[in-house]
Amino acid sequence: PAVRKPLIAGNWKMNLNHLEGIALVQKIAFTLPEKYYAHVEVAVIPPFTDLRSVQTLLDGDKLSLVLGAQDLSPKDSGAFTGDISGSMLAKLGVHYVLIGHSERREIHGESDALLAQKVAAAYRHGLTPLLCVGEGLEVREAGNQVQHSVDQLLAALADVTPEQAASLVLAYEPVWAIGTGRVATPADAQEVCSALRAALAERFGSEIAGATRILYGGSVKSGNVSEIVDQDDVDGALVGGAALDATEFATLAANA
Ligand code: PEP
């Protein structure tokens, strides 16, 4: 996919305090020389408490790594104890924000309607949603992975305009492949990613759909990333476990 620059995004989940996060980013920067960023965009997605420290490091050293956050509130401010707003994230130089990661959908019961509000909140504050969709094992075994993932996509994008959709990033993450070591085959990834692109084309037109990056996520490692991103409709990877080791993550990005 020559027009779409691959994106490798490392989701740290609830791992690494701010000192460990700084150490990881420094190591990634040493291991992945600047010349690579012409070919691949690389993002780190630390916990909220690390964002300021990582941002200071990225800014101070003029590093090309892009900063993301793992979630945001659908609200802008107010009596929402424990929540973090899009404007707070934007102030910290955050570019991407994960929305609808399966761990948020499952553990926190986040609904499609809530995710649509989070997508709107991200756009209100100039953040780029990295919207995650994907089926669980039962849906996969029933053969309904395409319909399920497309339904999640269209529900979360219910209120999105074409202008907004132009900057969207998607991630197809089959739940049975996340953190399990059970990676989808390249053909599995391509099947759903191409269906997501077709759904985007129907909703927003083929130009926007053709320019949208669709990532695969689920047990991606340095050793399997290239065959996955070789697929026509797969434009990078959302990486969990392998994002916590600098050498592994930098090698993964270099192999994308
Ligand atoms: C993820 O959390 O988005 C993910 C893909 O995790 P892992 O790479 O560990 O499967």
How is this fold's topology laid out?
Elements: E1 7-11, H1 18-31, E2 41-45, H2 51-60, E3 66-69, H3 86-91, E4 96-99, H4 102-107, H5 112-124, E5 128-133, H6 137-141, H7 145-156, H8 162-165, E6 169-172, H9 186-204, H10 206-211, E7 213-217, H11 225-229, E8 236-239, H12 246-255
Parallel strand pairs: 1-2, 1-8, 2-3, 3-4, 4-5, 5-6, 6-7, 7-8
Looking at this protein, list some descriptive labels.
TIM Barrel, 12 helices, alpha/beta, about 260 residues
Give the structure's gist in a few sentences.
The protein has 256 residues and is α/β, with parallel strands linked by helices. It has helices at residues 18-31, 51-60, 86-91, 102-107, 112-124, 137-141, 145-156, 162-165, 186-204, 206-211, 225-229, 246-255; strands spanning 7-11, 41-45, 66-69, 96-99, 128-133, 169-172, 213-217, 236-239. It has a single domain (7-255), classed as TIM Barrel.
Report on this model:
This protein is of the alpha/beta class. It has a single domain (7-255), classed as Alpha-Beta Barrel (TIM Barrel), CATH 3.20.20. It is 43% helix and 14% strand. It has twelve helices and eight strands. The protein has helices at 18-31, 51-60, 86-91, 102-107, 112-124, 137-141, 145-156, 162-165, 186-204, 206-211, 225-229, 246-255; strands spanning 7-11, 41-45, 66-69, 96-99, 128-133, 169-172, 213-217, 236-239. The chain has an eight-stranded parallel β-barrel with strand order 1-2-3-4-5-6-7-8, surrounded by five helices. Strand 7, helix 11 (225-229) and strand 8 (236-239) form a beta-alpha-beta unit. Helix 1 (18-31) runs parallel beside helix 2, helix 1 packs across helix 12 and helix 7 (145-156) runs parallel beside helix 9. The radius of gyration is 17 Å and the shape is globular. It starts with 6 loop residues before the first strand and ends with a helix. The model has no long low-confidence stretch (mean pLDDT 96). Bound molecules: phosphoenolpyruvate. Phosphoenolpyruvate binds next to strand 8.
